[in-house]
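Table S2 (continued). Query chain:
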Amino acid sequence: MQTGEILRGRWYIEQALGLGGTAGVFLARDAKLERRVAIKELLLEENLDQLEREARLLATLDHPNIVRVLDYLDTGRKQYLIMEYIEGHTLESARPSTPGQIWQWTEQLLDALQYLHDRSVVFRDLKPANIMVDAQERVHLIDFGIARACGPQVATASCLRGTGTPGYAPVEQYYGSSTDPRSDVYALGATLYTLLTGHEPPPSVALLSGDATLVPIRQSSPDVPPHLEATIGRMMALRKEDRPQSIAELRMWFAEPWKVQPSAAPALVPCDNVAPVHMVNASIDPQLPYAAPFSILYRGTLEVAQQVLEHSRRVGVPAHLLYACEPTSPRPGGWQVVVAHALSRGL
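Corresponding output:
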């Protein structure tokens, strides 16, 4: 399509947003509803059924982190997918980024992938270029061209074997074994690697053959916590059996950095005045221990500590999660939720 062209007398093409090997994406104005939309036009006739499959798949999905399909057109010669327009930038232009910022995006990506996997859909092309970030820092998965239903009898051979992007596609996407949620875990790990280092990882087939090696994240980004580097390394394991087996399991790996123990926990700062425990966790358990004079709100299991942390933030009490051990002890004794000294006074 060309700038100024009118599609079906309704969509005015304003500009090209991007051109790929099989499709182009254009910004257009919907004259009927007076809004901007993104239009995907398929470029290769032999792949005409691909866009229809993408349209049908997107039409079944409803998630805040997944682009919405608005319409689908088949003119007989060409096919077009009308989608919501996400004003922002892709994560491809956001690297390298701080671990804190990347974690905000990762939490949303985990939600989106969990939603897809719960519906037996594998995204199969997760990478920074396929993740949009809008002005509210919300991420959106934007290209479902090679996403497929997954199941024990669905092999990659019937799902465009070998497609995907080098550096982000796992080995099984090239060698004929079935892709499944663990394939998206690999791609997410590769995406995080790129965001943290500013460099794309080598193709998985090159890593498998020994023609390339994966440079440790902390070699180029020493501020990345060791446990995060270790977790991403497991996500990018060449054998999918060695990766986290689901998004639910991966969440646990991110939440509990048990693979790498810190040499010392941060010292607790004495506080004169901190929030009484009933202000923080009344809806959870009013009898949770409160250890004065430190700003500890809870000490115990990770699961309950996370509940206390979430609840304390909901009621406006600034808090964070730490290992429950003394500064001189290398072994964690559980978990604790603490309030920062500077923010706890006067609560």
